[in-house]
Write a structure and sequence with these properties.
Blueprint (H helix, E strand, L loop, with lengths): L1 E5 L5 H16 L4 H7 L7 H8 L4 E8 L2 E12 L5 E10 L8 H15 L5 E2 L7 H9 L16
Parallel strand pairs: 4-5
Antiparallel strand pairs: 1-2, 2-3, 3-4
Length: about 160
């Protein structure tokens, strides 16, 4: 049975493994190399995720199947220029073998609810261009695109 729950210190090793798996998977996609250098969490070690366990404006959740961690998601609250809070999903990944069974949806539902409890005006999440599965996943959860980031690579 799949479920999502708040992460604990005992989950950090599994989270760091999943974060590295996500980083490798996304870096290989179109736009992924620049994502890895600009937008991805620069450190994917224990300390990078342990700090989220004690941060009031961030949450770390894991998804499990029969008690085994197979995914995780993190969200942070950022303040807009007018002071209102916006939730930003920093990571959301489920190991390839556990996708398509509801774990990602369970994690995302908890992240969104956590943002709602903090009176966020909305929740942003990132998907690489051409990552159709991620786009479809978020659209299935009632997310819509609110902008496109355009980039032009220059010769070194």
């Amino acid at each position: 049975m799949e479920e999502a729950r708040p992460a604990t210190a005992a989950d950090i090793d599994a989270i760091t493994d999943l974060a590295r798996e996500m980083h490798d998977e996304l870096t290989a996609m179109r736009g992924g190399q620049l994502w890895a250098l600009r937008d991805a969490r620069p450190e994917r070690d224990r300390a990078a995720f342990e700090v989220l366990l004690d941060t009031a404006d961030a949450a770390l959740w894991v998804g499990t199947i029969t008690g085994v961690v197979v995914g995780f998601g993190s969200v942070e609250v950022v303040r807009l220029h007018d002071g209102r809070p916006l939730g930003v999903v920093r990571e959301l990944v489920v190991t390839a073998e556990a996708r398509e069974v509801g774990v990602g949806e369970a994690i995302l539902d908890r992240l969104v609810e956590w943002c709602r409890e903090r009176h966020c005006i909305g929740v942003d999440a990132f998907a690489l261009p051409g990552h159709r599965r991620a786009k479809n996943f978020f659209e299935g959860a009632h997310f819509t695109a609110r902008g496109l980031l355009m980039h032009r690579a220059l010769d070194p």
